[in-house]
Amino acid sequence: MALAATLALSACEQGGGAPAGGPYAPGMLPYGEDSIDGLTVGHRLMAAGEYELALKSYTRSAAEQGITADVLSAMGSANLKLGRLGQAEDLLRRATEKDKSFAPAWNNLGVVLMERGKVAEAARVFRIAYGLDGGKSAAIKDNLTLALAKVENISYDAPEDATFALMRRGQGDYLLLAQQ
Predict the structure, then answer these.
(1) Is the distance from CB of 127 to CB of 107 less than 8 angstroms?
(2) Segment 55-65 mean pLDDT
(3) Confidence class of residue 124 from pLDDT cuts 50, 70 and 90?
(4) Cβ-count burial of 109 within 10 angstroms (0-12 exposed, 13-18 middle, 19+ buried)?
(5) Res 103: pLDDT
(6) Residue 81 lies in domain
(7) Cβ–Cβ under 8 Å, residues 177 and 167
(8) CA distance 127 to 153
(9) Burial (CB count within 10 angstroms: exposed 0-12, middle 13-18, buried 19+), residue 65
């Protein structure tokens, strides 16, 4: 009878000793065959639009696998989606330094640079991504085309229909302002 009670009780327990349906969370699964890679989970969360959760998953992956170019690129992409452009740029630059042949990191770095208004550098970065990719990715090709078009259309002249105004900035110091 004691053996039957022990077997019944052990069947109700989950990993970490927490009883099923009890007030305590089950114990963590050890990293192995039953657990899912943090990068995979993060990619799924990114596809679902859960960027903050994806970033946490990528951070977990960094703790488990180490700081790889893939992890840095993923973290940079999540930060890009969250609008944290400075952090995204830093992470993606680190990813491209760690693995100079990783085209997705170069492409994502180019996207961040475009968002930050660094069009000429973005075009250079997209060229690298396009070369590494061998022209297989339509997204990289489109990004490069857009960046090159923006580089060609950069204008340092004031618009022709602009009117100008002077603003005084101290003793005899004036600033010329273009108004539209």
Answers:
(1) no
(2) 93
(3) very high
(4) buried
(5) 94
(6) 36-154
(7) yes
(8) 18
(9) middle
Residue 2 lies in a domain: no
Which of 157, 107, 99 has its CA nearest to residue 128? 107
3-state secondary structure at position 87: helix
CB-count burial class (<10 Å; 0-12, 13-18, 19+) for 54: buried
Q: How many domains does the chain have?
A: 1
Q: How confident is the model at residue 36 (pLDDT cuts 50, 70, 90)?
A: confident
- CA-CA-CA-CA dihedral for 152, 153, 158, 160, to nearest 10: 120
Judged against a pLDDT cut of 70, whether residue 99 lies above it is answered with yes
* Closest of 71, 103, 77 to residue 89, by C-alpha: 77
Determine what percent of the chain is predicted with pLDDT higher than 70: 66
| CATH code for the domain of 134 | 1.25.40.10
The CA-atom distances, in angstroms, between 154 and each of 40, 149, 151, 157, 168 are 40, 9, 5, 9, 29
Amino acid at 100: K
pLDDT at 135: 86
> Torsion-angle region of residue 25: left (phi > 0), alpha (psi -120 to 50) or beta?
beta
Closest to 98 measured CA to CA, from 70, 122, 75, 126: 70
How many beta carbons lie within 10 A of that of residue 150, not counting itself? 15
